UniProtKB/TrEMBL annotation, chain B:
A Pfam family annotated for this UniProt entry: FAD_binding_4
Residue span(s) of domain FAD-binding PCMH-type: 50-236
Family designation: Belongs to the FAD-binding oxidoreductase/transferase type 4 family.
Protein name, as recorded: FAD-binding oxidoreductase
Source species, domain of life: Bacteria
GO MF terms held by the record: D-lactate dehydrogenase (cytochrome) activity; D-lactate dehydrogenase (NAD+) activity; FAD binding
Keywords linked to the UniProt accession: FAD, Flavoprotein
GO biological process terms, semicolon-separated: lactate catabolic process
UniProtKB/TrEMBL annotation, chain C:
GO cellular component: plasma membrane
Recorded GO MF terms: 4 iron, 4 sulfur cluster binding; metal ion binding; oxidoreductase activity
UniProt KW Ion transport keyword: no
Keyword check for Aminoacyl-tRNA synthetase: no
Organism: Azospirillum lipoferum
Domain Cysteine-rich: 335-405
Domain of life: Bacteria
Record-given protein name: (Fe-S)-binding protein
Sorted UniProt keywords: 4Fe-4S, Iron, Iron-sulfur, Metal-binding, Oxidoreductase
InterPro entries: 4Fe4S_Fe-S-bd, Cys_rich_dom, HdrC_iron-sulfur_subunit
Sequence ranges assigned to domain 4Fe-4S ferredoxin-type in this UniProt record: 14-91
């Protein structure tokens, strides 16, 4: 569609037809997030409802020199990537594009718009016998596409072959104002025509010599945005059972996780320390404190499932292998810990709540995450823990979460520091201590694949070659620099 | 031979200082291997040597030497073309000013068993990598080129699909961190290696810029030189060197404990497809491969003479009989008897339920077929009958399209592979198909032809070109061969990727020093670019396709 | 008259090389370190040094695209003609490429065109002059036999052929003499050709001197015929290779005379109960690896007089006209040496590359004399393979291999011992008394 211009109260020339908000409170809500106290206030929040409207918006932004910060999630955001880093910016709020465009149980794939969130996705998929792969207990308002676009690791480690998972084909709108279908979507015809022919947008790579999905992953909306995507899903199992595998030390737990990954056992696998597990299980501070005293030091959560094919038999050999692995590595297996069953936790992980579980007990938290190989993960724990102690913050609970990725080639290593935001001293001192922890981790080999806030500068300190490639990429995909300006170091 | 360029003495001296005098040659005898027009995967012309010969070949030993060679080429306005094992014509120069960079001396291979990955250089071959990985109960993806190919080249620069993709993914997704010498001689490390954190992840910090230089296909030497990568490996319940069974050339491999190796057939493609969707459920199989029966026949016979003799006597095993064309070779790998019983039991039940039948295999045939599947030795062997193959219908999508792909393969062969035709006699179609990661279909229709025969070359070219025409008329899936000039025709309908690729090429390599015929065309005048999509119907008309086939069959491609 | 194929005859075979690089690697590698099949490219590194690279170069020579040059001669001269590329290639390509026949033809072409490398020419001059490529005096060829008793011509059932390598290598004589003495004590009627023993033509053929190879072969066959013996037993792996796979190219044979390698003959006698083997205390409990010499192994696979042409069947399938004559490397002399070692109580282990895929030690094909650094590298590579095995003793049944490997044994790290099989046999062989005369 062409672009018409309407004059509105703030003298913003926005493309006609796109819902636009200049409500002060709403605008101000985008000027900060859980980690970013003060950014720039956007000029408007534009709410496209279709790919054509997204295109109009981006082309208008190019013509008018207006920055665009894409936002697909709702609720309390974090990490600063959706907070404008300069003025003269509008928010492209895609949360209203929340349709399930297609689902196919046979191919275990679903096509979702950007605004579908974790609070609703399984309800949409359930009639098709599917459910979404998901990160560790995402909040309800988190956009499914945005989550994976930002390389959030799914707990379904055995289905995470590659960082692009669980994406199949996608439709991107680049900063240059053009659509870029990727992978299986890069084929002749509209989506409807493609679906009618039987295409299922299953291929995650391409087309040809390009892989723009991979390029836009981790770009924090600074190169383009995603209108819709085909996502690989999980067929709803016929049987499902959770297990806790616990030990006093991290290493044997990692060894067991590795063995299970190498055997491709478990539809969900992740490692947590007692604090992180308590955060997942507890509904309030009292329960949290009790759990911290009762839970083992390290726990591997293992979700076993079976589908339609001789499910009892499958569950039996999986459980036998899990038991044998536990014995081999000196890791205790339990169906419940401190009165909580693993099966119930597995079910609860599928119920997204409005507030992050990390904030449930103390009201706020700091997070630090990076990538490293699983056999090096244990070395980071004392680095962070000792740093907090030296900073006089030893009284604060420190949670550790290790998510195997790429089927165990490496892991997402995450530290969570819950704190009471009303305790100003804790809040201030923990901010400084956290920065120091990030630096120590960086020195020890932490790879900040997702450069946010406290560690965004650290991420690029060694990597001039990549910065020049980033600059090249930006100049080609978003030559006018309209997408999330000043967010990443492109120059 | 094209006009002969002499390497100026001072350039030779510079290159000698970089790689050592022993590792540079300008002698035609040494250059001949880089002008050999084998046509593997393509249709060769009548001439065995390409029209273009390189000006020199150098053998660097390190990334720094590669970078220095590239910069030397830039200083002297020379081009360069790097290759690893140089399968087929991949090592050929694309201009007479080209210095061929043969990466043979860069064969680093390091297994990180705990983290199921390897760090490899360009000349670590798949066969060597698999041998080293198996010591740790790991294996690697091996693409169609077989054990002698370079996984680094495949992962960074070419297609990267192979017969065990069900269990070992594909190389675009097995590539972890990467090291790359840009067309201007800068060394860039992507992902974790760039931050000095190891070789385990290729994306970030921030955007995955690798996607600008390696998509579904790589740049085939048209965009600098990849010199080292992290590479994902796959655990298997097989450890240690596997002593072959059988006698040369029919080497086999003992089928491991708790493994199932079955060959099943179905009465029609619909039931085959129904079975496929069930077999993909819960990743029952480590590998699933559909081969045309004649290719199975080539594999279970030790020579062409043996094959033809068995055909004439009707002595080929049932797996290699034409009627067994709706088939799957199925490999299950388990780690315990209970798991094995489940996998094998479910697979057999699916075959039965969908109307399929499991064929008997002798131990010898099973071991030969298993080894060829596990090591991907199959594909080089497919060249044995005639020495000439090209491919068509390399498509990826839902298995929904499997029956349609088979029809399309038959359509583009147009009966030329039936007795009396110009292509090697075979089945109704010649599709190799397999799933990726339990998800989607890869299938390609192999066209076998006698490269010494002009009519056969023309027929092969026609089948290849017809495949584009058929695909564009009624797409069967994402087309794997959407490369170079093909993308100029198709690209505008799928988001114009060729425009971005051209920008990448021209920005990184303004002088087109890193020259390849298998990458984007660096310059397409705007009127031509605009006209090409409109000309597509003309180009795909029967008379034009016929003319193009004759040109390709004569001059090669 | 039968003649080996010329390069022109091989044109279509050359053209079929797909440059797949399989020829550089053994068919079933067990490690990266020992995955190579080709000592030549391990040395030269340029693709032209590989089997396939030489085919392409040869095609260029035929086509006029590649002129003769020192670099071409260097690459050709670095090839040991070991035939490993041929074994590997046939895994994929069966009868359609057969690199080794083309490599022979390429060397012959170089000779024909006057571009045979100078060291090759010198070796041939010496061969012509004194019957051996080292230029040793003809009069000393039979010194090894001094003092040993033999039966006269016409009276012997067995004609011993020693070969120049062993005949002029005094270090090997104790083993040679010991075996001969035991055979004598066993009542075997033997003779030998003395100082006039001729060359098998193996080296001449390897170097591309086809006509001289033919003449040498004819000469030796005539000598053998005149001996009246029913069995020819050679101590030379190279000679056995010539007898079984080169002479048939000329349409030559020893006729009704049986031709055996000494290891085959001895094992036959052991199996017949005429000889026994005593355990060797020095080797007890020590793993021993056996090095398959190229000439004794894959290159001794019998070649039939055959039509090397291919028919085009089924619209493009290239089919051997004499499929029964196809050779894949299985028919070499592999088992007799191993059987003898086992019978001596040896704990035999296999190196990573063995039987038809055995890696050449570098000594053959004129490489040791022409490109000594290439030969040395091959030896070191082979010794490294030994070092990566559980064995520290390497036994070979070829005097050339043994000598060459022993020469370089000191240049590798862990102490290794190179042992000639003949020497071990001399210690272990016993006549079986009941039949010993």
């Amino acid at each position: 569609m062409g672009i018409a211009f309407t004059e509105n109260a703030s003298r913003l020339h926005a493309p006609a037809g796109i819902a636009c908000s200049i409500d002060g409170a709403e605008l101000r809500s985008f000027a900060s997030d859980g980690d970013t106290p003060q950014g720039h206030v956007p000029r408007a929040v534009l709410k496209p409802r279709s790919t054509d409207e997204i295109l109009s918006l981006i082309r208008w932004a190019n013509d008018s020199g207006t920055g665009v910060v894409p936002v697909s999630s709702t609720g309390r955001r974090r990490r600063g990537d959706t907070v404008p880093a300069r003025d003269n910016v509008v928010i492209a709020d895609l949360s209203g594009m929340n349709r399930l465009l297609h689902a196919d149980a046979r191919d275990k794939i679903a096509i979702l718009e950007a605004g579908v969130d974790f609070g609703t996705v399984d309800d949409l998929l359930q009639p098709h016998g599917l459910r979404a792969l998901r990160p560790l207990s995402p909040r309800a308002g988190k956009s499914v596409l945005a989550s994976f676009l930002e390389r959030e690791p799914p707990i379904n480690a055995n289905d995470h072959w590659d960082v692009a998972d669980p994406f199949g084909g996608t439709l991107l709108v680049l900063g240059n104002g053009h659509c870029a279908p990727t992978g299986g979507a890069a084929i002749e015809g509209t989506l409807a025509e493609q679906l009618a022919r039987g295409h299922r947008q299953m291929m995650p790579i391409g087309p040809t010599n390009l892989d723009l999905l991979r390029v836009l992953q981790g770009a924090q909306g600074s190169l383009g945005l995603m209108a819709w995507a085909a996502l690989y899903c999980e067929r709803i199992p016929t049987m499902e059972r959770g297990w806790f595998a616990s030990a006093d030390a991290l290493e044997p737990v990692i060894d067991l996780a590795r063995e299970l990954l190498h055997h491709r056992i478990g539809n969900a696998l992740f490692i947590v320390d007692r604090v992180q597990l308590a955060l997942l299980l507890a509904r309030d501070a009292a329960a949290f404190n009790a759990l911290c005293g009762a839970l083992p030091a390290w726990t591997l959560f293992v979700g076993l499932s079976a589908g339609r094919q001789a499910p009892e038999e499958k569950m039996a050999w999986q459980q036998a292998d899990l038991r044998a692995g536990g014995e081999r590595h000196g890791v205790g297996l339990a169906e419940s810990l401190a009165g909580h069953t693993a099966t119930a936790l597995g079910q609860r992980l599928r119920v997204a709540e409005p507030v992050s579980f990390r904030d449930r007990v103390s009201g706020a938290h700091r997070e630090l995450f990076f990538l490293q190989q699983l056999d090096r993960a244990a070395g980071f724990v004392p680095l962070v823990r000792d740093g907090l102690t030296k900073a006089g913050l030893g009284h604060l609970p420190l949670g550790v979460y290790i998510q195997p990725m790429a089927q165990g080639v490496y892991g997402h290593i995450e530290f969570t520091l819950p704190y009471d935001p009303d305790k100003a001293d804790d809040a201030q001192r923990s901010a400084a201590a956290w920065q120091a922890a990030a630096e120590r981790c960086a020195d020890a080999g932490a790879f900040f694949s997702r450069p946010y806030g406290a560690w965004s500068d650290l991420a690029y300190r060694h990597d001039d070659g990549i910065r020049s490639m980033m600059a090249l990429t930006k100049s080609i995909l978003d030559p006018a620099g309209v997408m999330n300006p000043n967010r990443l170091p492109y120059s | 031979m094209s006009r002969k360029i002499e390497l100026p003495p001072q350039v030779r001296s510079e290159l000698e200082r970089i790689v050592g005098a022993r590792h540079i040659s300008t002698d035609p005898a040494m250059l001949s291997a880089h002008a050999w027009n084998t046509g593997v995967g393509k249709v060769p012309g009548a001439e065995k040597f390409a029209g273009i010969w390189p000006v020199a070949v150098v053998l660097p030993e390190s990334t720094e030497e590669v970078a220095a060679v590239v910069k030397c080429c830039a200083r002297h306005k020379l081009h360069f073309k790097a290759h690893s094992t140089g399968y087929g014509s991949m090592s050929n120069a694309c201009s007479p000013e080209t210095v061929v960079i043969d990466l043979r001396r860069m064969n680093r291979l390091e297994i990180d068993a705990k983290n199921r990955m390897a760090i490899i250089g360009p000349y670590a071959t798949a066969g060597a990598l698999q041998a080293e990985a198996l010591k740790h109960g790991l294996t690697c993806h091996i693409v169609g080129a077989g054990p002698a190919h370079s996984p680094l080249a495949s992962a960074t620069s070419l297609l990267g699909v192979g017969v065990t993709s069900q269990g070992t993914s594909m190389n675009a997704r097995n590539l972890l961190s990467w090291e790359w010498v840009t067309p201007q001689g800068d060394i860039v490390r992507g992902g974790t290696a760039g931050s000095g954190c190891g070789w385990f992840a290729g994306e970030g910090p921030g955007p995955g810029v690798r996607g600008m230089i390696r998509g579904f296909c790589g740049a085939a030497g048209g965009l600098g030189v990849f010199t080292r990568i992290g590479y994902k490996l796959y655990p298997v319940p097989v450890t240690g060197p596997q002593e072959p069974t059988g006698r040369l050339p029919q080497l086999g491999m003992r089928i491991p404990d708790n493994a199932g190796f079955l060959h099943a057939v179905w009465p029609d493609w619909d039931s085959h497809r129904a079975a496929t969707f069930e077999l993909l459920d819960e990743n029952l199989c480590f590998a699933m491969l559909r081969m045309p029966p004649d290719h199975i026949g080539w594999t279970v016979t030790g020579s062409n003479a043996d094959y033809v003799d068995q055909v004439k006597r009707g002595a080929l095993p049932e797996v290699a009989q034409p009627a067994s064309d709706r088939n799957w070779t199925l490999l299950t790998l388990s780690r315990s008897p209970a798991e094995h019983a489940w996998r094998l039991g479910v697979v057999k039940e699916i075959v039965r339920r969908t109307g399929g039948r499991i064929l008997e295999l002798t131990d010898e045939h099973a071991e030969v077929l298993f080894r060829n599947l596990f090591t991907s030795q199959f594909v080089p062997r497919v060249l044995r009958p005639s020495g000439g193959i090209t491919t068509s219908f390399g498509v990826l999508d839902s298995f929904h399209f499997l029956p349609r792909a088979m029809e399309a393969g038959q359509e583009c062969l147009a009966g030329e592979n039936l007795p009396g035709g110009k292509l090697v006699e075979g089945g109704r179609e010649e599709h190799w198909s397999w799933p990726h990661e339990g998800r989607y279909l890869w299938t390609e229709n192999i066209i076998n032809f006698d490269p010494a025969s002009k009519p056969a070359r023309i027929a092969a070219a026609r089948a290849l070109l017809d495949h584009f025409a058929i695909s564009w008329k009624n797409p069967v899936g994402v087309m794997a061969l959407g490369l170079g000039p093909v993308m100029e025709l198709q690209g505008e309908q799928i988001g114009a990727p060729q425009r971005y690729i051209r920008q990448v090429k021209n920005r990184l390599d303004p002088g087109n020093a890193s020259r390849s015929n298998e990458y984007v065309l660096p310059v397409v005048p705007k009127p031509v670019a605009a006209a090409l999509p409109m000309l597509k119907p003309v180009i795909l008309s029967r008379p034009v396709l016929g003319l193009m086939s004759r040109v390709v069959g004569t001059k090669g491609m | 008259m039968h003649s080996p194929q010329t390069l022109e005859d091989r044109r279509d075979f050359l053209a079929r090389c797909t440059r797949c690089s399989q020829c550089k690697f053994v068919a079933a590698p067990r490690s990266q370190r020992h995955a190579s099949a080709c000592p030549s490219i391990d040395y030269g590194q340029f693709h032209a040094y590989s089997g396939g690279g030489q085919l392409i170069m040869a095609y260029g020579l035929l086509d006029g695209a590649v002129p003769h040059s020192a670099e071409m001669a260097g690459a050709v001269a670095s090839c040991t003609m070991c035939g490993n590329c041929d074994v590997s290639c046939k895994i994929n390509f069966g009868e359609t490429v057969e690199p080794l026949d083309s490599l022979y033809a390429l060397r012959a072409q170089l000779v024909h065109d006057g571009h045979s490398p100078a060291p090759h020419r010198k070796m041939m001059e010496r061969l012509r002059r004194s019957g051996n490529s080292c230029g040793q005096p003809r009069a000393e060829r039979a010194r090894w036999a001094d003092g040993l008793a033999f039966d006269g011509m016409g009276k012997a059932e067995v004609l011993l052929h020693v070969g120049s390598g062993l005949a002029y290598e005094p270090a090997g004589w104790p083993g040679l003499r010991g075996v001969v003495a035991t055979l004598h004590r066993s009542g075997i009627a033997m003779t030998h050709l003395g100082n006039e023993e001729g060359s098998s033509g193996s080296l001449a053929f390897d170097l591309g001197y086809v006509d001289e190879a033919r003449m040498l072969a004819q000469g030796l066959i005539e000598q053998a015929r005149q001996s009246g013996a029913g069995t020819l037993v050679t101590f030379s792996a190279a000679a056995l290779s010539a007898f079984r796979s080169v002479h048939p190219r000329f349409g030559l044979s020893f006729g009704p005379m049986r031709v055996l390698h000494i290891t085959e003959y001895l094992w036959e006698l052991v199996e017949q109960g005429r000889l026994s083997l005593a355990p060797l205390p020095d080797l007890k409990g020590r793993p021993v690896a056996y090095h398959d010499p190229c000439k004794l192994g894959r290159l001794s696979e019998p070649r039939q007089t055959q039509d090397s042409g291919l028919d085009n069947r089924m619209s493009g399938i290239l089919v051997s006209r004499t499929p029964s004559a196809l050779r894949f490397g299985n028919g070499g002399c592999y088992e007799a040496p191993r059987a003898l070692l086992r019978a001596m109580g040896v704990d035999l282990v296999e190196l990573e590359r063995h039987h038809a895929s055995s890696y050449c030690c570098g000594a053959c094909g004129g490489v040791r004399e022409t490109v000594p650094e290439a030969a040395a590298l091959a030896a070191r590579n082979r010794l490294a393979e030994l070092q990566d095995s559980t064995a520290s003793i390497l036994v070979s049944a070829c005097a050339g291999c043994t000598g060459h490997l022993a020469e370089h044994a000191g240049s590798v790290g862990r102490a290794v011992q190179i042992q000639d099989l003949l020497g071990l046999l001399a210690q272990a062989l016993r006549p079986v008394p009941a039949l010993a005369g």
